[in-house]
Every structure is written in structure tokens, then in C-alpha cells.
Design brief:
Keywords: Activator, Nucleus, Transcription, Transcription regulation. By secondary structure, the protein is mainly alpha-helical. It is 77% helix and 0% strand.
Length: 136
Amino acid sequence: MLTVNSDQIKAVIQNLYNLIVQSLEYQGTLTEDAMKREIQNLTRNLANISTTAPSLGIHLTEEVIDYVDEGRNPDIYTREFVEMVQKANQNLKGKSEGFVMMRDVLAERISRAMPELAEDVEGVMKRTGGEGVGKG
């Protein structure tokens, strides 16, 4: 279905291009008739697109639509979004690694300070992905 719409969009672009060329090389009645036919083709192609477009199911966020409405490049939006996600992932990775280090240090200190809890600490370490007290 997407390729059909791609072909329809190409047809509209071709119609517009033909109209530009015809207007630049205007030669009276012949050009006027050709332009009328081209405008009819353009109208028909736009109508075809408007009937098939809703079936595509493409959803754009309001933010993307506003971005394009402001005359900004959607590729830049995509790049900025990817960079933002990468930064957020790095931040979360740092926090996750920090919690792992805190867990390991806390387990080690609890085991040293209260040896009677060492077995419980080992169980917690195993359940949370740790290697055990003094092994990491």
C-alpha cells in the first residue's frame, strides 16, 4: 500500500513540474490547453492520494507536525530526538551502574559489620544479579 502512495506522490510532483515548465515556456493557446489538462491530472492525482492516505495508518506526534509547520527540517528533529534518547540511555546506564556499585559496597559492609546477616546478604546479591560478597 505504501508503494502505491509513493507512486501517487511522484505523479503529483511530475504534474507540478510539468506546470512549471509549461508556465515558463508559455506559447499561447496550445500551452493553455496543456496546462488545463495538467491541472485536471493534478486534481485527479491529489484526489487519489486523499482517498488512499487514511488507510496507511501513519501516526505523527503533534510535536513533529509543529516542527515541520515552523519550516524546520524533520531530519534534524529525528537527529535531535536520537541524541536525546542516547543521552537519556547513558544517564540511566550510569545510574544503574551506580546502584550496582552501591549494592556491592553495602553488601560487603553489612557482611563485615554483622556476620550473622552474611547468608541473607548472599541471597539478596544472587537475586539481584550480584556475584556474592567479596567476589565482584
